[in-house]
Each structure stands twice: as structure tokens, then as C-alpha cells.
Design brief:
The chain is an alpha+beta fold. The chain has helices spanning 48-63, 82-91, and strands at 6-7, 10-11, 20-23, 28-35, 38-45. The strands form 2 sheets. Strands 3-4-5 form a 3-stranded antiparallel beta sheet, covered by helices on one side. The chain has a two-stranded antiparallel sheet with strand order 1-2. The protein starts with 5 loop residues before the first strand and ends in a 5-residue tail after the last helix.
């Protein structure tokens, strides 16, 4: 329940972004995307905004821009590792 640690004004564990949750033991924001009944773990990040942008990129790659439900509008910023996301999704068998 309520935590005592704060990052970016949020109590750890509280989150306003789709696909992003607080990883308590690693103390980072974790990104997960569901695809075909599978949870795809896409990494851990220091802040929830970057994690949410990673989720958005992966959602577009997996579901397509028209079908993906996103956290943000527009293109991802440079700090989002698109090549890494694409490679992870290929390794998981989601992309060809």
C-alpha cells in the first residue's frame, strides 16, 4: 500500500501509465506489454515517463499505430531505444 519512497512526485508503486509498474526489489519502473496472451517484459527504467514511452513504441510495433492504446501522442524521444525494443520483440517471437 502507501510507500515512503518518492520518484518524480509519485509514491513508489503509484502509476498513471499503461504497461508500467514499480519493481520493488530492483527499485525501477518495469515495462510489460501483453501480446497474444503473453506478458512481454521490455525492461526496467529509472523514471516512469521513459518506461511509458518504451511501452508506446512496443505497442505500436506489436499492434500497429491504429490499434495500439498509447500513453502519449507523437513520436518517441531520442532516449527511447527503438532498435533494442525491436530486437527484444524479435527474440520473443513477436516480430519477424
Amino acid at each position: 500500500m502507501g510507500g515512503i519512497f518518492r520518484a518524480g512526485g509519485l509514491i513508489m508503486g503509484e502509476n498513471k501509465y499503461r504497461g508500467v509498474s514499480w519493481h520493488r526489489t530492483k527499485r525501477k519502473w518495469r515495462v510489460k506489454l501483453k501480446s497474444h496472451g503473453r506478458d512481454l517484459n521490455l525492461g526496467r527504467f529509472d523514471n516512469p515517463e521513459t518506461a511509458a514511452r518504451v511501452y508506446d513504441c512496443a505497442a505500436i510495433l506489436v499492434h500497429g499505430r491504429g490499434e495500439a492504446i498509447l500513453n502519449f501522442d507523437g513520436e518517441p524521444p531520442d532516449e527511447v531505444p527503438l532498435g533494442v525494443i525491436r530486437a527484444q520483440l524479435r527474440n520473443l517471437g513477436v516480430l519477424k
